[in-house]
Amino acid sequence: MSEVRILVADDDLTTALLMQAALVRAGFAVTLAADGEEAVQAFAQAPFDMVLLDVDMPRLDGYAVCRELRRRGGEELPILMVTGMDDTASIEAAFKAGATDFISKPITWALLGHRVRYVLRATRAAAALRGANARNAAMLDALPDTLVRIDGRNHIVEVRTDPGMDACCAPTPGQTLAAAYPPAVSAILERALDEARRSGKPRTVEFQLACTDDRPSHHEARLSSIDGSEALCLLRDITERKEYERRIHRLAYYDSLTGLANRRGFIERLEREIARARQTGQCLAILFLDLDRFKSVNDTLGHAAGDALLQEAAERLRHITRPGDFISHGAETLESAEFARLGGDEFTVLLPRIDKAEDALPIAERIRANMSAPYMVAGQRLAITTSIGIALYPEDGHDAAMLIKHADTAMYDAKAHGRNGCRYYNPELTAEAVHRVELEAGLRRALELDEFIVMYQPQVDARGGRIDAVEALVRWRRADGSLVPPLDFIPFAEECGLIAGIGARVLLRACHDAAAWMRRGLRLRVAVNLSPMQFRAPDLLERVCEALDRSGLPPGLLELEITEGALMEDDARTRATLAALRGLGIGIALDDFGTGYSSLSYLKRLPLGRLKIDRSFVTGLPDDADNLAIVRAILALARHLGFRITAEGVETAAQAALLAGLEADSLQGYLFSRPVVATEIESIAARGWTIGALDRVG
């Protein structure tokens, strides 16, 4: 199969490049257009299999481009509108302009490729259905179908048989309709004949027959009265069409990965149940499930492992409602439960029949416990917990959209309270949901306006007492000049997929600053943190080389800090990436050593050069005996394997002296300096520290 070519039109370069990267990773060929006119020109020069259009673009907006491309490309060209506007009028305008579907911003980059494949499959299935209908129409024009002439007493007078029709489906001249077909089918045909004779207009009906191989065949009968008595019946086998319709319905209403209902199917079922509950005065509940830290599995083990985890989670949901698996409390409620995957790692459960609000909690807890049992994925045992939000009808909303929104909000409240729990919705949570939306919008705006700054914390040589390196640390300086602490935005940036863009800017800025110091005679190694998403990106080497080339920084002065979580998948790809970086002369440090969940065995296999002792182990030294034992063990291990050691979180002279005595190579912490801007590093580098040894290695 030839490569699928996609045209992406977006005047926001950052969004366009992120969209291109996500689609290229998914295996598509992508061409970018900076505005509407450029998109039209690109489409005129080369054919494309799909077009993604931003709504708001200069010169020609997305609607105008959509209309023009629809005129040129025909009805079968899939066109997706990418919009941050979720009001009904904007969506209706997109469909009126000829859009096939729309994608709402913010875009979940990890799922964009899946969404594009889904639309392509649906488009091709619809094209196949249209082709089948066209073929049937041509056959009818040439009268290849079975033509039956019927007299006024419903006796079959003449039969012109389609050679392809099964013998069991074709009637025989001389038979009555009642003798030729089963009672239910003959009743359908006789009723349609009566209506055609009475009205003088053709009637079309469908029926199903069971042939000798026990496979049902579907047929369409078009009946027309000739003279008020005699009639013609054109029989057509529509089994293929019905199969296409079934497949399209499956694509439209079910998730292709898990087989559960998708968002559309779930919402339609939920709206029906709300209407029923409104009439009967009953209650119902919505459970919104999210797999905790699923994103880290995707980033570290890859999307194939993430898909396998989602399939196992879906199977566990199905298993909950299997016969014989019920506990007494809530069994009847679970029997009628409807499960769905809305997208990503988000699942929903509809409980259509509950007597009172508190009945939903034990069911949610049971589902949470079942979903939180360890998973075996890609040969690894993963502890993935589940957070669940609960919304009730009619207390928390009177329509599907509001109930799902409030259950989602309650789920985030469960995450905020430590994850792996269940929480009911309450109105106060809406403010928190608004904060999350505003935070994501602020982060996207900060990327556009370049509001992220890089500060540096010195690392001091434990023997010489001079600065030999700095760690680059990102800060967010808002337009009003206020600084946002990293813990207030970094975890959320990782969650919503913006950390890759932030990390790329930090890497480039750090290389430029270190190169500037070098040109002024100060050679300092600069350490830059890589998130798991950055480390797993296929273009990591390209981005690192680009930063070095653009800045002129020698590779030996760059060190990349990687967490244990990023190395969770110790495979050939991980080793190849690290080896390629080391081959360029770039240093590799393992950050927060000892706090992760990976085995120490990778220390022997992976080309690491430095271990960083996490600040949690330095805290309490020299008096904390447990932490002291851990630090001694890490240092002994590092010396044995040939690693250099940097200790973080050094705040007292006693800690510095102890770590120097234990032969740590470098020290980092507030004792020496808080993080500072690049212009202050040279003055700090001129200082020196005398670090006395409180402990010696025996």
TrEMBL record:
Keywords, A to Z, come to:
Phosphoprotein
Which ranges carry the GGDEF domain?
282-427
Top-level taxon of origin: Bacteria
Q: List the Gene Ontology MF annotations in alphabetical order.
A: catalytic activity
Q: Which ranges carry the EAL domain?
A: 436-689
Concerning CDD domains, the annotation shows:
EAL (cd01948), GGDEF (cd01949)
Ranges for the Response regulatory domain? 5-120
Q: Which residues carry this modification: 4-aspartylphosphate?
A: 54
In its UniProt record, which GO terms are filed under biological process? phosphorelay signal transduction system
Q: Does the keyword Phosphoprotein apply?
A: yes
Q: Which InterPro entries match?
A: Biofilm_reg_signaling, CheY-like_superfamily, EAL_dom, EAL_sf, GGDEF_dom, Nucleotide_cyclase, PAS-like_dom_sf, Rev_trsase/Diguanyl_cyclase
For whether the record's keyword set contains Transport, the answer is: no
- What name does UniProt use for this protein? Response regulator receiver modulated diguanylate cyclase/phosphodiesterase
Protein species of origin: Thauera phenylacetica B4P
Q: What is the lineage of its organism?
A: Bacteria, Pseudomonadati, Pseudomonadota, Betaproteobacteria, Rhodocyclales
